[in-house]
Write a structure and sequence with these properties.
It is a single chain. With 333 residues, this protein is of the alpha+beta class. The protein is built from nine helices and 15 strands. It has helices at 2-13, 81-95, 121-130, 143-156, 165-177, 193-208, 235-245, 285-291, 301-308, and strands spanning 19-22, 32-35, 38-42, 47-49, 53-56, 66-73, 108-115, 133-136, 216-219, 226-230, 248-256, 265-270, 279-281, 311-318, 321-329. Helix 2 (81-95) runs parallel beside helix 3.
Length: 333
């Protein structure tokens, strides 16, 4: 239940990144089908369940529209190769599906895997090779988010037992979070509706208080995406205000720790106004090792940032208007 609700929370936190949750079969869409387990995406060899599938409002130049599978693992042990390999197999099969005469409906499918406990080394190596995005939520900066999920999951777990009940719980949460308009027809006479609705409302309140109530998806010139959050409670808001006036600006990027952290994170600050905002993201350890591998000529973090984090693009949807921001890496003294 924790993993399911974390997926719902992520869909809500990503809503301003142009990530629109897809929850039902769309008319004329040859990719989407309804399976006994819910929404599924057709592949060349099989149909693949999609608990959380979103479509981006932004299409990169010379590319197809993007749809992203989101999977979240709320475990106490690191996520292994089998999970990441399944993600790769899913998008590989889906992207080879022949849409036939529906050529106008082609999409590029990608996969983002979130973990509260990190990833094994072989899982990370495989993900880098096959362009599966791994987001490590084990840093303390995510503790408030995970606590909200823990509380909600413990409250609704008794009401999710039985055939169709998990779908019911997720539909109630999507109604409260307003992440899928067609989820609003949830039957309020269902057993446990009031308690599940109350738990969802409580989680929404805690999400709104967390890091400005959103994540920012960032796209560097690398085979993975970054999920940015504020280092402080108002840093997302401060970034938006700063970037509204300076949509393209230089930033410093450094690796370091919060005072209470035992693992390293990455921090982004504007180069000429360090106090304006502070964003943070995490990278799985092996991915950091890969991008600083001396055999590939990337001998230190400065070279890493110059080559792989040199121009970070952030797309955001503001009141129906698309916004694009570019963060250019500038070496600090």
């Amino acid at each position: 239940m924790r993993g399911y609700l974390l997926e719902e929370a992520l869909a809500w936190l990503l809503r301003n990144s142009g990530y629109d949750l897809i929850t039902s079969v769309l008319p004329g869409d040859p990719w989407l089908v309804r399976s006994p387990a819910g929404l599924a995406v057709r592949g060349r060899g099989a149909d693949h369940q999609a608990d959380v599938l979103g479509e981006f409002a932004f299409t990169p130049p010379f590319s197809l529209p993007i749809r992203m599978f989101v999977e979240a693992k709320f475990h106490t042990t690191r996520i292994g190769l089998d999970t990441v390999r399944n993600a790769w197999a899913t998008v590989s099969d889906v992207n080879e599906f022949d849409v036939g005469s529906h050529s106008h409906a082609r999409y590029r499918y990608v996969y983002a895997l979130f973990s509260t406990s990190g990833f094994t080394a072989d899982a990370q190596r495989f993900a880098v090779t096959h362009q599966i995005s791994l987001i490590d939520l084990s840093l303390d900066v995510y503790r408030q988010l995970l606590a909200a999920i823990e509380t909600a999951a413990s409250q609704v777990h008794p009401h999710a037992l039985g055939h169709g009940r998990v779908h019911f719980v997720r539909s109630v949460f999507r109604t409260v979070l307003d992440t899928a308009g067609n989820a609003s027809d949830v039957d309020a006479t269902e057993p446990g509706w009031a308690l599940v609705h109350a738990a969802a409302a409580e989680m929404l309140g805690r999400l709104q208080a967390y890091s400005g109530g959103e994540f920012l998806l960032a796209f560097p010139p690398t085979p993975f995406v970054l999920t940015l959050t504020g280092a402080g409670s108002n840093d997302i808001e401060h970034f938006i205000r700063f970037a509204a006036e300076r949509p393209e600006h230089a930033v410093h990027i450094r690796r370091g720790r919060f005072e209470s952290e035992t693992t390293n994170g990455w921090f982004i600050e504007p180069a000429d106004a360090a106090d304006a905002y502070r964003l943070t993201f995490s990278l799985p350890r092996h991915i950091e090792e890969w991008i600083t591998d001396e055999r590939q000529g990337r001998t230190n973090t400065r070279v890493l940032k110059r080559r792989l984090l040199s121009a970070i693009m952030i797309y955001r949807w503001e009141q129906g208007v698309p916004k694009v921001y570019q963060l250019r890496y500038s070496p600090a003294a």
